[in-house]
């Protein structure tokens, strides 16, 4: 009872201006990004329990899965249709299970004690979904253009789980380096962006008609303002699709080398990456089709933006401020 | 062939009623103990829980639409004003009242752009009504609510969803003489030494959990409106 009154008293004192600003800790950026990733997983879980996901047929989840098989080599197509068949026969059971796993991942990342287990599960789940649910992102039949989400949005969940694996240490020079180290983080970055550059210009990646059809296919059911943007994208791809693909490839290569340059230049290339993929996420991927009410995830654009942010070089000013606050907090604890 | 998951709506509806009942208990406790902090959130959760239960399961709905719109309009105004006051008092930050303002606004959207109901009594899956909410707005709100659920559950300052980080952190710090088992700056949730059912109802983790469930249910409803 006394405690409740004490809390009330504290709240009242606080409201008078004797606030607890001294309790503020420096923000743990790795933890913050983990929680943003958890939010995306929770979004995926909620999208998974949309009514159509529990249904059979072409418009259901099994139909969605089976639609990814054509064009793939038979040994891949077979695994996708096998998965689609299981979902078709047990739509409620399988979809409930899929949703629960995503809820467990999202909420598991919340608790520090279960963060590692949840991130580990997310890597396994992402790779499984990439193969059985996304047809390996279309890379085996030349349809993995980054414009459309190639090489598979779900791969970025796995990559972020690895880069944001909990570890002690400073966030400098950038958050992604905290766990795997600067050298490994930069290598991963370069590999990812060179791969995106290559995928931009192979197969249907440089085909104006394929890119045009991809956007046109998403147009249905979108809100008016997004449909308007889509029409501009369609026109752009139909007339300058190849040029756009080559341009994206060049941008990806510039971004790939950006992290090896001075922090100021790296920041410019990261801003370029964020702007380009924000544009792609909106104007080409249409937020993964979420706004049309038939999506299972937000596609790759959002995850690539998040990936770019975990590579953001932290300036000295911020590091010094964090160090000062950290030392002050440490001294207070010791006292 | 379709298999509309009406059980899912009943599950969400039952959860909403449970949160409304829990918030009512918290409100009664607050009145009996002359506590003012968190009362507004409890009131909001009662109305949101009862209202959303009626949206998930149409047989459980009651009250005129205009009345609910009035209630959530008042709640929206209240939380917006409280948010502004919090910013004026503590400086630029995201007050916990802001997310409750967003939740109240989301409730208004649900009444302004209602969905149909299926013959089974549970909510219809179709959102292709004549007027529909702008999907971009619904998506942004849904994402904000999910982020609130995650960041609330992960916050080292427990009970922040009801009392805000400022008042709660100060109380937890022991500065006001309160007994806490863990520092508010620690990772483990701070436990307050109140026993019995009263302690259970006042448990900060339960306040946060109810807020998180409410956020997820509301985000689900907004996604269904797309």
What can you tell me about this protein's structure?
- Chain A is built from 14 helices and no strands.
- Chain A is mainly alpha-helical and 335 residues long.
- The longest helix of chain A has 35 residues.
- Chain B is mostly helical and 226 residues long.
- Chain B has one domain.
- Chain B starts with 5 loop residues before the first helix and ends with a helix.
- About 13% of the residues of chain B have low confidence.
- Chains A and B meet through helix 1, helix 2 and helix 5 of A and helix 5, helix 6 and helix 8 of B.
Task: List its traits.
A: 335 residues; mainly alpha; globular; disordered N terminus; disordered C terminus; B: 226 residues; 0% strand
How would you describe the shape of chain A? globular
Question: Helicity range of the residues of chain A?
Answer: 55-70%
Apparent shape of chain B: globular
The total count of helices of chain B amounts to 8
- What is the subunit organization of this protein? heterodimer
Number of domains of chain B: 1
Strand residue content of chain A: under 5%
Structural class category of chain B: mainly alpha
Cα distance spanning the termini of chain B: 22 Å
Order of helices and strands of chain B: HHHHHHHH
The helix fraction of chain B, in percent, is: 55-70%
Could you spell the SSE succession of chain A in H and E letters? HHHHHHHHHHHHHH
Q: What composes the largest sheet of chain A?
A: none
Low-pLDDT runs of 5+ residues of chain A are: 1-23, 328-335
Number of domain modules of chain A: 1
Any idea what the radius of gyration of chain A is? 23 Å
Nearest-integer average pLDDT of chain B: 81
- Low-confidence regions of chain B: 124-129, 169-192
Summed up, the helix count of chain A is 14
Q: Biggest interface between protein chains, with counts per chain? A: A-B, 57 and 54 residues
Strand content of chain B: under 5%
